[in-house]
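job 3f2a | input accepted
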Amino acid sequence: MSQKCARSVISYHNTNYKYTSVQYKDQNDRGKMHGSQRVIMFCLLTTVLPTTLIVSSLYLRNIRYADVMYKISDSDVIQIHKGQSSIFCEKHSLKMNNTFNAFQMKGRPELSSKRRHIKLKKSMTLPDDTLEYWGFFLFAGATVDLKACSRYEGSKILVVKGEKILDTCGILDGRKYKKDPSLIDNPDQLSVTLESPKGNNEQTTEISLDHKKKRDKEHSKEQLFRNLVEDTMNIHFNKTVHKRSVGNPPLHNPNTVLDTGVYHGGNANNTPNITEDASISSFENNLHECYHENILMNNFFPYSKECNSTSYLENTTTLKVEHKVLTDGYYYYIFYSDNDMVKNDIHVIFDIYKPTFQYTNMSESKVCLNSTECEFDISMFSDELVIVEVPTTGGFKNDNSFILTSVCRPRTTVYIFFPVSVLLLILLFAFL
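job 3f2a | predicted structure (432 res):
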């Protein structure tokens, strides 16, 4: 029989039945299909799966739990979540170019009855119809004592309650409002004390918010009339300049902000060069329209030629504002000038008394005080997080910013699983 007849056709016959032909493949052909499946499974389980494991470990180490950098300021208190895991991190390291305090604990710390004193001294030069603001996050129970003076007449202070990013309603971008200003009641309490700059014929007026609405409305009408008869005014608008702008290298926002420092912005450094028609609402009216639902106070304060620095305010009071905070929130103190003859010099001293957080019943291993570097052990499946606070130094408050670097030290016993798994997979399927 020739080789071409390797595959045979067999027929069987008998008188009662006829058997049809059946064709079979030889043993080698049946084995080839099994071998193809084996090669495919081997490639998948020794190439694709190990590659996935290796890529996953690199992603977790270098992206998901990579070093995280934050830009924070004096008196900030933040809780760090990003870049940390109780499974993949065995230690949490922190480093900053300034001293800080850090605490490892569960949940959010409680406020204590103890308060810390923050002092902020600021001087500014405001052209006509420009502003600068200073904002703070204040807990209920905080108090703010403010003293201010100006060299020339026309300076005013506006206190408003706002959001984390102060909404300027487009005023600094050039958009204008035409509605009459209106003020509404607000639960926070303020008192304003006005005194003679030289201490003679001293006149003090205590004003609580509950009794000032009528007076503010009358004053607003008077101010509106005075503004409407002005011939022209020069106003230049630009975007708010924030001290907390994100720089280079890229920085992250804290996951949980428990307390914050100073927010600063305004357009006082811009040179006005836009003429506005007197029939259009003035700069001040735009401010009133923007913040009328959240205005706590709006007041002129006396001026003096002797007001040339914050040192003048140490012994002399021209304007004193006492603000007792009843609800948590962001509060902004906006200073602006309505003097079209000269640039007005304004000097301010803030004395802020803020409630502090209490950290009790904590072991030494979970507390790191007054240091530039800290490290905490992380227990497997722990729900503890690290809280970082930047204390003020000697009671003096400045708005400097610092860079905090948060590092996840990898848990070796977990990451070793990935390469070991790759080796086991290769050995396991090599014998299939």
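job 3f2a | The longest strand covers residues 89-105.
job 3f2a | closed
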